[in-house]
Amino acid sequence: MNSKKILITGGAGFIGSHVVRLLVTSYPDYEIYNIDALTYAGNLENLIDVEPHSNYHFLKADITDGTAIDQLFQRYKFDSVIHLAAESHVDRSIIDPLSFAKTNVLGTLNLLESFKKHSEVKKGLFYHISTDEVYGSLGATGLFTEHTSYDPNSPYSASKASSDHFVRAYGATYGLPFVISNCSNNYGSFQFPEKLIPLCINNIINSKSLPVYGDGNYTRDWLYVEDHATAIATVFHKGKNGETYNIGGHNEWKNIDLIKLLCSKMDARLGRAAGESEKLITFVKDRPGHDVRYAIDASKIERELGWKPSVTFEEGLSKTVDWYLKNQDWMEKVISGEYQHYYKEQYSSD
Ligand code: NAD
Ligand code: TYD
């Protein structure tokens, strides 16, 4: 797959900024257009080093605004789309499911419609970035494969499942070339501190309690965000039309064990006594509909496209901790506004 004018949606977010950086710097022949509404989760500071590149262009637009999106497609006639823009946090989807349906379902439909209408679709690709959460919850054993039935439990995962279905429907009905990848939990630099790892890093720095939902025995499969970005570039270039690829790190952690590991790393970096940060762990009310375990079988992308993760969890977590410690001004800015209100509402019984 080789298209020159590439639209990346949600490029100012956590994963999107890594994908934009990778494509802009590794593929100077590509013109990369980043469309982002700059919601609370979008931040142009994530892309300061990318901005000077002449093949990078930022367009502020909301994917739920069909007219605005259509005008942009009419004007730029993007060759391919890598679609990451979304409302992405499960806890927020429990508070406000409608905005998840609007952005993740309607927003995806607007992009599909405009792409179908204005682009030379047969020569391009619509790549939808999705999540393993569409598969629902695993018990103690087993892995999600590309053949696992969809069984989403949260409003977030239901909205992502729905958008995956619409992408496939546009492939079947209108012949739109597409690929979908479903990835496990990401961690790394620029992640908004509503998610578990940066939330805990920030709270440890500030000696605030570390809210562990339920008994902490929920399991996630963690992948370093830069490995996800290389997987996305691989699927974009080598993925087969109409296929789905699961992406994961073979790296399962129970939340409580992960938080304890993070505490010990942070104690070492902050010069605190061993065990100091663990004292901040507080078991709080569980998340409703909390999926017990996610774990990915990534053998298809490894076998067929030759991708595998390159960063161990030990290295990735150390790099992540170091990045947040070095970039405390970034953290201060992103938590200064709306986050305070969200945090108070979400953790008020904490
Ligand atoms: P994020 O919340 O950090 O970033 C989302 C970006 O989308 C932000 O820049 C935001 O401004 C933008 N956006 C939101 N609504 C928009 C709208 N209406 N119009 C235009 N832009 C809008 O999310 P993330 O963690 O970077 O996730 C990116 C994608 O990857 C999402 O589709 C998510 O479902 C998927 N994903 C995330 C993970 C993960 O662990 N974070 C794992 C698998 C898949
Ligand atoms: P999160 O980072 O929100 O990702 P997701 O829900 O998409 O997997 O949460 C990761 C895990 O950590 C999940 O099992 C919920 C749990 N969690 C807590 O225990 N406390 C928290 O404050 C947060 C945000 C998450």
Looking at this protein, list some descriptive labels:
binds thymidine-5'-diphosphate; binds nicotinamide-adenine-dinucleotide; 12 strands; single chain; 16% strand; seven-stranded parallel sheet; globular; 43% helix; alpha/beta; Rossmann fold; three-stranded mixed sheet; 350 residues
Structure in words:
This protein is of the alpha/beta class. The strands form three sheets. A seven-stranded parallel beta sheet has the order 3-2-1-4-5-6-10, sandwiched between helices. Helices cover 43% and strands 16% of the residues. The protein has twelve helices and twelve strands. The radius of gyration is 20 Å and the shape is globular. The chain has helices at 14-26, 66-76, 90-95, 97-118, 155-174, 196-205, 225-238, 255-270, 299-305, 313-326, 328-334, 338-346; strands at 5-9, 31-36, 56-60, 80-83, 125-131, 178-183, 185-187, 210-213, 219-224, 244-247, 252-254, 281-284. It has a domain at 5-190 and 221-252 and 293-311: NAD(P)-binding Rossmann-like Domain (Rossmann fold). The site of thymidine-5'-diphosphate has 12 residues, from helix 6 and strand 8.
Stated plainly, the CATH topology of the domain at 5-190 and 221-252 and 293-311 is called Rossmann fold
- The total of beta strands comes to 12
Which oligomeric form is depicted? Answer: single chain
Question: Pairing-aware structural class of the strands and helices?
Answer: alpha/beta
